[in-house]
Please model this.
Amino acid sequence: MPVIEARELTKTFGDFTAVDAISFEVAPGESFGLLGPNGAGKSTTMRIIGGTSLRTSGSLTVLGLDPEANGPEVRASLGVVPQQDSLDEELRARDNLIVYGRYFGLPLSYLKPKADELLEFAQLTEKATAKVSALSGGMKRRLTIARGLVNEPRILLLDEPTTGLDPQARHILWDRLFRLKEQGVTLVLTTHFMDEAEQLCDRLVVIDKGRIVAEGSPRELIQRYSTREVVEVRFGSSRNAEMEGVLRSMTDRLEVLPDRILLYDDAGEALLDEINRRGLNPLTSLVRRSSLEDVFLRLTGRSLID
Amino acid sequence: MTRPEGSDAVGTAQPVVTFSGMDHAALARRTRRWGWVQYARYRQAAEKPFFWTAFVTALGNPVLYLVAMGMGLGSIVDTDVDGVSYLWFVAPGLLVATVVSTGAQFGTWPIFGGFKWMKNYLAAQATPVEPWQMAIGEGVAISVRMFVQALLFWLVGLAFGAWPSVGSLAIVPIAMLGSMAMFAPLMAYAATLEEEGLQFNFVQRLVVMPMFLFAGTFFPLASMPVYLQWIGWVSPMWHGTQLARVVSYGASVPAWLIVVHVVFLVACVVGGLLAAARTFTRRLVR
Model:
């Protein structure tokens, strides 16, 4: 039985349709992603799952319950890591976990050892008595994740968990989330980073303008909507358009971006050799594997990050 | 999902999170009933870093007021006011006015900031606690705090000889009621504000300040021109002060008027909390 089941879920704000008849299921223990650009409707979907935003139409069950009618029951089983840190800046790291547990009515005899365990998991034991305002961005995110685990949630909702973090901080955070996944915690996350989705998600839906435009595992999506490899070439902004015609004859699909041209081909190296053999002389070139970014570009004609 | 404590599910030495099989349904049941208490306990725990500032202010305020008004001003008021010495007359008013003003402060910026800057209501919203319970919980937490503040004021007053009877201790719950009558409606209003403006300056300068000056704190309301007396009638400060004077030195107030004072204050508290429960829900559930 799925832990989350959404059917034709729709949310409108006046004339604006934020979530447009989306349907999806999340299986227990699965790591499920909502991938899409900013403003695609991902956060609204997350809020509807938590019962803190009311859907306009459609049906939704979370752990078999409707979050609108059973908000407290659903949220008692959820861990939520919101997009914006909502930590208590004046309190120390450990106290943040303990006071948050108060919202759930958890006793101090449970919360004190739990806070220590979660701090260790979040690699923040040494910062236990530091004020939140003194923590780095990555530490705050890890503390927020630790906070979301205080009630031993069955599902952890993460809204853009690594936005604003530097690469090293992101990798530490991914490692922590991966461990939770290995422990069988169901993860539902939104992201506009394709590498994050590839790292963490067993399965994902690609959302654009409130609608699901594709669904599958990262690998399936890449296989279905892209080629194995991508050749990126740059000729300089003045020559990119001019080269488009020549290059189009060499591959089935290409995309001209403002700063570069992407050529989709299963044999990237051979294609690049051919480009060089014809003396087209790109200023820079590289062959890489296809990513979800390419899938998104294919599906929407736009880049994930504006 | 149940794992023994300290178990290592992934076979590495890395720490893991224990899942002890928490009864989430029981948490939800308890929160449906006691979420407002859970919120109030959160609020009290979150105020811990500010304890000493609050404590020193709560002791310092009455000392300053009683020295300035009771002893300073009182020493040149050589006639009795309302049949008692000026210190006995003014002390209940000062206590109530101080606690009610504090209630007004708590009902404005801290509530607005909780939505706008601190995001603590958003954090709470991710838990089983419901928005209406946050509003009631705020009220409970502030009540406790106001009770303590009033008690400290009363104890300081004791040292100044400001209370003619032990019965004056009843001023403490009266002041708490008065401060809630101010706090609750302001909290309801603060929860509706999306953007920072001059609204709270307006509240402070044009509502709280006139009440402090013209609601019978320093002189009987009856000695003011009739056209200014309405300020007292609409002010939780005056109703609270009148009740405080009755229990402190037995000010002569007809029974029906005592009932009016109590009903006015209770109506402000109940109406304010109901409105706040509504504005919190509107603000948070969209």
Notes: Chain B has one domain: 50-284. Residues 50-284 of chain B form one domain. Chain B is about 70% helix and 0% strand. The radius of gyration of chain B is 23 Å.
